[in-house]
Amino acid sequence: MAVAPTVIEGRVEYAFGTFIFILRWLIRWRLVGIRGWAMDDWFSVFAWIISTIYFILIEELSVYGAAVGFTQEMREALTPEMVQSFEYGSKILFALFGLLITLQWSLKGVLVSFFLRLTRQTKIHKYVLGVAGISVASYVAAIITWPTHCLPIRRAWQILPDPGFECSLNITTNIVLAVGSALVDALLLVVPIMIVKDTRITLFQKVLIVFLLSTGVFVMGITITRCILSVDPGADRVAQNSAWGNREILVTIFAVNVPIVHVLFKSETWKKMWGGTRTYVQTTDRDGDTGMSGRGTKGSKSSKMEIYKMTDIHMDNHESKTKLVHGNGVPGAFLNSDATKHSSNVLADKRDDSGEECDNNVSV
What we know:
Pfam families: Fung_rhodopsin (PF20684). Keywords: Membrane, Transmembrane, Transmembrane helix. It is a multi-pass membrane protein. The structure is a single chain. By secondary structure, this protein is mainly alpha-helical. It has 14 helices and 5 strands. The strands form 2 sheets. A 3-stranded antiparallel sheet has the order 4-3-5, with no helix packed on it. The protein has a two-stranded antiparallel sheet with strand order 1-2. Helix 1 (5-32) packs antiparallel against helix 2 (39-64), helix 4 runs antiparallel to helix 5 (125-148) and helix 8 packs antiparallel against helix 9. The longest helix is centred in the first third of the chain and has 39 residues, at 80-118. The N and C termini lie far apart (49 Å).
């Protein structure tokens, strides 16, 4: 039996998505160790688990099918065996919607948590906290709409009589999912602009940082496209809906992980990842936040600046740490080595109130 093109596409997309996740985990493991992982890293693990279950069920759905967009006449023409098969497939499709909602917001959790960590010592941190709250509210709205848009719930997989397009096409769920997802992505697009607008770096560097942190615009586009195509009634909607759902997942996986994976293109990253062993120390910053930080055994002062420490801020030598708190800093991981020669690390070698030198490593 020939394998459907959409199934092959789904397998390729799952493989690429898993590869991106593995790259992320490898980078984070080598640079900060498992004990140095932050909330966005654990969100990525959860998202990969959900995506694995999702793609397994997609394979099952391709075997059984579902009566998506079928009219009453088309349903009456089905054989008893096809009715039974489509009913089981419709149950799988119902479960897939719940997984898709959870997966999409798990991936948003990766990016929102990353931004919270990235802006922890800046004035836009409260804004990101607000976006996080809106993201949670959007997820709750979507997850409630999923089982309640078609009541009683058994109508979601009912074949005969025709339960209507609302039940078979999940129109309301698709709209709530798309609106909530696009809203959160749009709000997050403001963050990189606010990060770089007052910084003293080149225009190219500003554009690069904004691009790396604004890939959510692609997610918005494909989310809206999937929503429009998914609510269009007609036969053979299952293959098209599955294909666009898979594409949306892959694009989202890429978008939320590109700020991490991009460091592979830096020579400093390879030196840090493979240049020596790591030891871990528990550290505390001035705000009382504690965490584990990795430190290479090779090198002296350079080892104090983590390549992937997103709370490192490079500033002009004449700027003070006070300006950093007011939002004039840029994450050091996004600046190239040439730029760092003319800037100082605000978080490097702080001194406590007694005048003694203290460790400034923070959790990453």
